[in-house]
Amino acid sequence: MEIAFSVIVPVYNRPDEVMELLESLSRQTDTGFETVVVEDGSSVPCREVCRRFENRLNLKYFFKPNSGRSDTRNFGMTRAGGNYFIIFDSDCIMPPHYIAAVRKNLERSRADCYGGPDCAGASFSGLQKAISYAMTSFFTTGGIRGGTRHAEKFSPRSFNMGISREVFQTVGGYRNMIGEDIDLSIRIKSAGYRTMLFKDAYVFHKRRLSFGKFFRQVNTFGKGRILLSRIHRGSLKTVHLLPAFFILGHALLLALSLIFLNAWFLLPIACYAALLFADSLLKNKKPGIAAASVAAAYIQLTAYGLGVMEELMFRRASKKTQEELYR
User: Fold this and answer.
1) Which residue of 65, 94, 205, 219 has the fewest CB atoms within a 10 Å radius of its CB?
2) Which pLDDT belongs to residue 316?
3) pLDDT-derived band at 143, boundaries 50, 70, 90
4) Are 15 and 49 in contact (CB under 8 A)?
5) Strand-pair category, 195-197 with 92-93
6) HSE (CB half, 13 Å, CA atoms) of 292?
7) What is the rounded average pLDDT for all residues in the chain?
8) Where does residue 150 rank: exposed (0-12), middle (13-18), buried (19+ CB within 10 A)?
9) Phi/psi of residue 261, each to 5°?
10) Which residues, in sequence order, are bridge partners of residue 151?
């Protein structure tokens, strides 16, 4: 059966981001896809933005009452005409070869579900590049996503994810919960379907625009990982606890340096920060971005680790509504 793609884009109050995303889709070398934009009850809608692309894209626009991103993605897939759904976050930009790369990979592997990596675009601000570094570097937990090892066991993330219509109809779509994309990936694998990483199907992911918002987002990820482990027994791995050990290790080294008045205990911390700085400088070519990358990496690891520890000890996230968790 020929692959017919439907690109699903949930959006909430982000017309500027949708403009960039649609512009990138209009420049695809492979034009064999439709785009389904679903407005999740936005007070600042992107309807006019979508109208500008009606002659450049096969575009469908829907407006629905606010019910969250999971419901919004499911809404789009039920109204899509394709047999393979590609899901993006509204803050992503696609390189021109993206659709062509996905088609090539699917024709070769026929994966039932795939995910792709993310990286920073040339137009990103220094802060965006620093946050992107923290989320993708080999020297942070971000390096786990998008690696080439265990590519066929990869758990796709919904900022860059594809599933077949058959999978959607059999397994069901996203559920309203933290870590809804990981939950969906686990259910897909449990149903006997195949998930894969398509390394060359990457996107430019803008993510959060301040360290404060980035901290809150990653902190929620940490809590979500523990919540997921209660739903899917055995899904929690040692690697997911590394940020918590990172915090405890740093606290121990700082305490020892104060107790013994010996700065040598701080050497491992200094070496790790220097490693992050050098690696980011090599990738981004600017000392300012490299310095911000060190801060972003520490925020990522600390926020995630605190989220893990808080949920393990107090189960606070379990007692909150989804609306409260996503504020």
Assistant:
1) 65
2) 62
3) low
4) yes
5) unpaired
6) 19
7) 91
8) exposed
9) 50, 45
10) none
CA distance 97 to 94: 8
32, 38, 62, 165, 306 from 73: Cα distances, Å:
21, 8, 11, 13, 29
Average pLDDT over every residue of 124-141: 92
223 contacts 303 by C-beta, under 8 angstroms: no
DSSP string, 63-76: EE----HHHHHHHH
Q: How far apart are CA 46 and CA 59, in angstroms?
A: 13
- The encoded tokens of residue 209 equal 């625009």
Residue with tokens 């449990």: 190
CA 263 to each of CA 29, 48, 258, 266, 317: distance values in angstroms, whole numbers, following the listed order: 56, 59, 8, 5, 38
Mean pLDDT, residues 293-321 taken together: 86
Q: Which two tokens stand for residue 58?
A: 């096969």
The token duo for 272 is: 């790790």
Q: How far apart are CA 238 and CA 110, in angstroms?
A: 31
Closest CA to 226 of 322, 312, 99, 130: 312
Token code pair at residue 92: 């992503």
- Please write the tens of the pLDDT for every residue from 44-94: 999 999 999 999 999 999 999 999 999 999 999 999 999 999 999 999 999
Work out the average pLDDT over 283-301. Answer: 97
> Which residues share a beta bridge with 63?
39
Angle at which helix 242-259 crosses helix 267-284, to 10 degrees, equals: 130
**CA separation (Å) from 31 to 35, 80, 207?**
11, 16, 26
Tokens of residue 24, six digits: 């990138």
The number of beta carbons lying within 10 Å of the beta carbon of residue 51 is 11
Give residue-wise pLDDT tens across range 178-232.
889 999 999 999 999 999 999 999 999 987 779 999 999 999 999 999 999 989 9
Smallest CA-to-CA distance from 299 within 236, 225, 221 is with 221
